[in-house]
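This week, study the protein below.
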Amino acid sequence: MDTWPATRLIEGTGINLNVGPEAADAVAQHLAKNGFRHARIEFGWGSFSYDDPLRLNDRARFEAVVGACRKHGLRPLLLLNAHHGYPCPIKALRVTLPEGAPEGATQVRIEGAAGVVPGYTGFNGFGEYWAARVIITDLDPATGLAKLSRPLPGELKAGDHEVYVLKYQPFGPLALPDGTPNPAGQETLDGWVTYVKALTSAAREVLGTDGAADAGFDLEVWNELTFGSKFLSINNYCDPPRFADFEWVIGDMVARTVQYVKDPASGLPGVRVGDGFNNQWPWGSGSTACPGLDAINKHPYAGFRQFPEADNGREAYRLQPLNALGQPDGKVEEGSYFKPAFGLLMPEYYLCAYQTEHTIRDLSPFTTDLYRTNHGRFTHPEGAPPVTMWITETGIAPDERDKAVTPEAARHIKGKTTLRYFACFVAKGAGFLTLFCADGRDTWLGLVADSFLEAVKAGAGKYPEDDAPLTSPAMFATRNLVRPLGPAEPLRHTRALELLRVEEPEQRLVFEGDGTPEHPSVYNREVFTFLPFQVDDHTFAVPYYVMTRDVMQVWHPDLAAGDPARYDMPPETFVLDLGNVRGVGATVSAYDPLRDAAVPVTVLGATGTTLRLRVTAADYPYVLNITEARSGLLILDLRVSSAPGGTAVFGYRTNVPARGLVTVGEDTHRTGAAEFRCDDAATEQRVPLTGLKAGAMYWLRVRATADGLEAVWPRWDEDLQGVFTVPAR
């Protein structure tokens, strides 16, 4: 279990800002007021001019939306995308067909074709939002006969038609089958980099960050491969395919983007880049990322599933099941395995390994091998730091579970799921989340209340004078989630709070087993969620809750259909034993951020290093606040300096006098090569390390102790902190 600095949760809140320029200022103000820090915004490649690819077609919109982020302190996450409906700079052109062409035709006759550019101009649509879906590959200027890249997917009637001239062809291979360069493929990839340059330059100008230490925004490369991604391959426009063995150049797109952003000459310090091609698949890893990439991104949407019906032995459930003892359980093809009965609709679905394509393996501090690729929090490209994870879209839409859900009930449900998303994903290692979305209906995914957006529209963009009745539970709860954490200190290292034991005085079932050790019943204590954050050297804030399986379970069927309380799990009492905390004299309280109210908590026992508490929990996070009577142990900073001859010096400081044990090893166990005890309590320790091998790499760990409390650095074996190399003689 991690204990993160509280600043990580404070800085981890975000949303997809999908509003127009007329509402941008008021909505950005509303988001900032309610604790949001990041705003994901899409300005696709098609937002730029055909005649000048460095110029935005609608600069005013960009300035309004990005300028609103600057004004209200939101950090933009700019989405780089090329949706095939308008994939790149485009010029519209009218042509005339003197005669119609039937579905399946491979050529048409055109009049008024002066502006047609073969290879770049095409007919749009045919029932889909798809620019230049059928490309003109050759044009006889004398006869107007145009050859097409594929048979027409629908009829073209005689008469005028609008065609699009693409500035760049769809992405193709960078080399032709004979190994020579492919000019069209290279042109498109170079055009993509021009787009990156244009968008980042505009952002820097609007944010006013030229010459600043941090340009003030981040980038995401691509949205979703299953949505709007035809432009990634020229073969999607050709039948038969133009290049038989070509799929796409997405690796080159990411690498070229990173290369441009990280080049000091680009003037983009502090700008981070996330790989959105990983949003919907599990294959990306820090170990296979290009050097300089900051994050692999995810969109962990999960709809409702009812078990056992959903467990059909296909798709996500086609693999061999295991029982509670880790043994094979029955046969998939026969369905002869234990299937519990429960509903499943929860923010944490992809943190619970209900299917193999989950996010745990990339957030975990333990590296795992999947098809000969290492996954984990500390995996990294050679010579580069570890790659983190950003959750750039996710959410639960109540009306997709129940079409009859009322707006009031839906807003209430999303208030709870918003708290669960932020608390759990950040606590498990995600860099930040940008939930979907600001404007998306009360009953669907929208997190800003419809009434607020309507008031802004009625006021011609002005912020409502009284926003309290217009503030959705998701907004209100986010504000109250981060408020108890501030003003948090920017801790570099924390003291790990320990959850030693969870007792459930009155047991409640999650689902019922069959009474055997192989298929036991599961109780709420086994899904009790405890997510510690450290505010300063003597204060912890801990979101905690029962991770119910179905956030829209009706707990109170006797209440009216539109009553939000129908969906609230009755509060439950748990007894918690906590360790590595100065319990004696500690002040303990608990808070409900959804209702802005105190909730019961009782101290049952306390020692110098433990606390025993009775808490009340709900199906969404309450925040447990623990303030120790005085400063507890923290490691402040550390440094290793090695020298030729097999020696090194390790130094570290603590906030209170402490003893320490320093161990060094040649692998992640960090033991066996050297050991030094700091028996005299002090706030600064200097440890000589001798007998090391010249040219060898070592892994170091320090365990500091004071008054029975322990601070360990680094917390996890595979962390790259504490790794150093002794120079060769």
The radius of gyration is 29 Å.
